[in-house]
Each structure stands twice: as C-alpha cells, then as structure tokens.
C-alpha cells in the first residue's frame, strides 16, 4: 500500500465543510486548519463566499454547485457556478442530475455538464460528482465519459450526503480506468482514516475530499 507522508497527503486534500449549519467563524477556522495542514484547498458552500477578511495564504478555494441533490436545471447550476467563480472560487464541484443518467439520457447529461463548464472557464477547475454508490458499473463508466466529453477536469465519487454511501475502492478503480489519466479522480465521502485514504490513492484517486483531515494526517507514518 502507498504510504504518503502527512505533507504529501495534505497536498491532495480538499479540506471540506459543507454542513448546512456552518457559520463564517467555522469557515475561518477551516481555512486556518488548511493553512496549518498544508492542504490543497478548502471546499465550502457557495453561500459562504466570498471569504471577506480571511487570508487563504496559498490554499485554493473550492465550492459546490447543484448540491447535494443535483436536481436543478442546467441554467441554475451554471448561474450558481458563475457566481461562485465571480466570488473567487478556484474550483467548482457540480452534482449531476442522476435522473438523466439513470434514464439513459446521455446527450442531455453531457449538455448539462457542458453548460456548467462554460460558466467555469479554465484555469478554474470543474469536478463532476456522479454519486457512484448509487450507480451500476456501466452507469459509472457512462458518467465518466459524459464528464470527459463535456470538458470537465475531474470526476468525483460522491457528495457524502447520499444515504447510499460515499467513495469505494471499486468505484475509484473503475473511474480511474475509464478516464485513463486524462481527468483527475476525486474520492469523497466516508474517508475518515489514513488507511482508507491510502487505499483510495492506490485505487487511482488524485484528489481526496475529506472533513476528517486532522485524523487522517495523524495516521501518516
């Protein structure tokens, strides 16, 4: 198993706070932790933007859109994403409309992702949350193909809010094999210790979305 140092592991972590009850003080504390840990980014709800008076100190700023259900129209998702970019978000993690995927409406799903991609222009990053725990292997592969065709930068396993669960090693392996290094793979949801984080990396994850960052990094050898 891969055994990254705490510093190396922190460098691929989106230190995450997406609870509905989060306050501005909570977010400021999150950023302070991220700076101390050396994480890649903090990931917060769009309503917490902009981070007025909070010094990021090199930590990137990520947010979500269409979260957590994905049951928003493409135009609403795009407007939400565009507003977040205007409020200094570096990265946007969008939730797809799972109903489109489950119904086989592949063209519509690709178009939805492309609409949000247009609102999140490079060098901003777009990650596509597919809620892999709900999907069959075939659906996971299809979702990854749609994300790639639409120009996304990452595919992401989960919101962490779905009752079906979060990331699994199998889903990450399948997603990584499908995108073949052309897109990043973000594992998120249910990653709470160092061993699980390492397993996700071994499976092909290039980014981790976690809230238990302190506990995970404490396990590094």
Topology:
Blueprint: H1 6-10, E1 13-17, H2 24-37, E2 41-44, E3 60-65, H3 74-86, E4 91-95, H4 98-102, H5 106-119, E5 125-129, H6 137-149, E6 154-156, H7 169-179, E7 184-188, H8 194-203, E8 207-210, H9 213-218
Parallel strand pairs: 1-2, 1-8, 2-3, 3-4, 4-5, 5-6, 6-7, 7-8
Q: Considering the protein shown, what is the CATH homologous superfamily?
A: Aldolase class I
Averaged pLDDT, please? 97
- Give the DSSP E fraction (strand runs of 2 or more residues): 15-25%
The parts where pLDDT drops under 50 for at least 5 residues are: none
Query: The biggest beta sheet, please?
Result: 8 strands, parallel, barrel
Global Rg:
16 Å
- In total, how many domains does the architecture comprise? 1
CATH class identity? Alpha Beta
Quickly give the CATH architecture: Alpha-Beta Barrel
**What is the fold-level CATH name, i.e. the topology?**
TIM Barrel
Q: How do the strands line up in the largest sheet?
A: 1-2-3-4-5-6-7-8
Give, in order, the helices and strands.
HEHEEHEHHEHEHEHEH
How far is the first residue's CA from the last residue's CA? 12 Å
- Sheet/helix structural class: alpha/beta
Structure explained in plain terms:
- Strands 1-2-3-4-5-6-7-8 form an eight-stranded parallel β-barrel, surrounded by six helices.
- The chain has helices at 6-10, 24-37, 74-86, 98-102, 106-119, 137-149, 169-179, 194-203, 213-218; strands at 13-17, 41-44, 60-65, 91-95, 125-129, 154-156, 184-188, 207-210.
- Helices cover 41% and strands 17% of the residues.
- The longest helix has 14 residues, at 24-37.
- Helix 5 crosses helix 6 (137-149) and helix 6 (137-149) packs across helix 7.
- The chain is α/β, with parallel strands linked by helices and 221 residues long.
- Belongs to the DeoC/FbaB aldolase family. DeoC type 1 subfamily.
